[in-house]
Write a structure and sequence with these properties.
It contains 9 helices and 5 strands, in the order ααααβαβαβαβαβα. By secondary structure, it is of the alpha/beta class. The chain has 2 domains: about 80 residues, Methyltransferase, Methionine Synthase (B12-binding Domains), Chain A, domain 1, CATH 1.10.1240; about 120 residues, Rossmann fold, CATH 3.40.50.280. Helix 8 links the parallel strand 4 and strand 5. Helix 2 runs parallel beside helix 4 and helix 4 packs parallel to helix 5. Bound molecules: cobalamin.
Length: about 210
């Protein structure tokens, strides 16, 4: 079984091949993939974010690390989803219009699938119409992600669009998003990370 440090380092160095190999080794050895995700891979991406903020690395390095992370996620995702039980509710998730960040959104989608929800991943750069289509296909909960302060206001546009629809609940998240902002725009829930997203969804469902 690879040392978790090796996977952490491979993600931060953007070594896609090593990440895929080592994650596969963990899987082959029946390792704890939820712990691998939450305890190693997500913290590695956070470190990348901090290094970028300190101008120690730039966009290309960030992108390379993101691709390495995705290589590991591609292996884990079907397993997390397969570990889930019968779908508890239908959820649609998308990064809002103008925003192309999808690592956090993908993680949330993956955790939700792992928790047994049926997840319709709408991708990035989602306009109101895309969420509307998902609702028409049966999604009762919409998860909105935004990583840019400039795209956050679009979350309000989506919330406003569905105002008065009791059959649609909206949960928001992303690095610049806060609980206060969620309250301010009238979203039904907010999650700080992928784990909280699951709890928040369960809370919203229980209240429905
Ligand atoms: C990787 C990255 C990129 C990659 C994205 C690759 C991809 N496929 O996603 C690339 C290189 C493409 C990129 C581009 C840009 N980026 Co960028 N990027 C980042 C970086 C380093 C990490 C983001 C990330 O993946 N974090 C790891 C994941 C796991 O965390 P997360 O996304 O926050 O998600 C977690 C939670 O927020 C939460 N969550 C997320 N979504 C949701 C949704 C729901 C419903 C819930 C409940 C929870 C939830 O759960 C997630 C998992 O725990 C951040 C720095 C940072 N500190 O966040 C900058 C950052 C977001 N980027 C930034 C900028 C400025 C840009 C660019 C404008 C740069 C440029 N000049 O071109 C472009 C914008 C492109 C666009 N139109 O979207 C700024 C934003 C600043 C601001 N105030 O808005 C940041 C903060 C960097 C910085 N310090 O300046 N970026």
């Amino acid at each position: 079984m690879p040392k978790i440090d090796e996977i952490y380092e491979a993600v931060t160095k953007g070594n896609r091949k090593v990440v895929a190999e080592k994650v596969q080794e963990v899987v082959d050895n029946d390792g704890d993939i939820v712990e691998l995700l939450n305890g190693t891979m997500i913290p590695a991406m956070r470190e990348i974010g901090e290094r970028f903020s300190r101008n120690e690395i730039y966009v290309p390095e960030m992108l390379i690390a993101a691709r390495a992370m995705q290589a590991g996620l591609d292996i884990i995702e079907p397993l997390l989803a397969a570990g889930g039980h019968k779908a508890r509710a239908r959820v649609a998730i998308g990064t809002v219009k103008g925003d192309l960040h999808d690592i956090g959104k993908n993680l949330v989608a993956m955790m939700l699938k792992g928790a047994g929800f049926e997840v319709d991943d709408l991708g990035v750069d989602c306009a109101v119409e895309k969420y509307e289509e998902a609702v028409e296909k049966g999604a009762g909960i919409l998860c909105l992600s935004a990583l840019l302060t400039t795209t956050m206001p679009y979350m309000k546009a989506v919330v406003d669009h569905f105002k008065g629809r009791d059959d649609v609940k909206i949960i928001i998240g992303g690095a610049p998003v806060t609980h206060e902002y969620a309250k301010e725009i009238g979203a039904h829930g907010y999650g700080e990370d992928a784990n909280q997203a699951v709890h928040e969804l369960e809370k919203v469902l229980a209240e429905a």
